[in-house]
Amino acid sequence: MAFRTQVPVRFGDVDHAGIVYYPKFFIYFHEAFEDFFDENGVAYHALLNARRVGFPTVHIETDYTQPLRYGDALDIELSVPRIGERSATFRYVGFRHRDGLKACQADITCACVDLDSFKSAAIPEDLRALFTRFQS
User: Fold this and answer.
1) pLDDT value of residue 39
2) What is the CA radius of gyration of the chain?
3) Domain tally for the chain?
4) Residue 58 and residue 105 in contact, taking contact as beta carbons nearer than 8 Å
5) In terms of Cα–Cα distance, which of 36, 30, 40, 52 is closest to 121?
6) How many CB atoms sit inside 10 A of residue 121's CB?
7) Per residue in 79-103, pLDDT tens?
8) Per DSSP, what are the bridge partners of residue 104?
9) 77, 105, 107, 129: which one has the fewest Cβ atoms less than 10 Å from its Cβ?
10) Is the dihedral of CA 124, 126, 129, 133 positive or negative?
11) Could you tell me the pTM of the whole model?
């Protein structure tokens, strides 16, 4: 099962060619990551600010297959293909909303870190349980 959310393409997201500038997709993926936590009962801001647990990106693989333009929306499906002791890989598959065509896919590996020491940490059990619900 995958978590699903939608991100609109804004005017400032497109380049001179009139399509979404490729690094903007990473912002879309992170917005989906925040929605994933928020919509599953873990307030992302509280995870960072109160619990002091973060998930910085350590590796990304991305493919782009369809362009997005201003006014489009990207439907993002987020799943978790790998859960380790101190890191997890999140898969983002994006579909162009207007026609359902696959526009992109990214596998993003994030380390779990203690934000006070910025050292790696074991993934907390409640988050491991959340990730497992969306394991692919």
Assistant:
1) 97
2) 15
3) 1
4) no
5) 52
6) 17
7) 999 999 999 999 999 999 999 999 9
8) 64, 94
9) 129
10) negative
11) 0.96
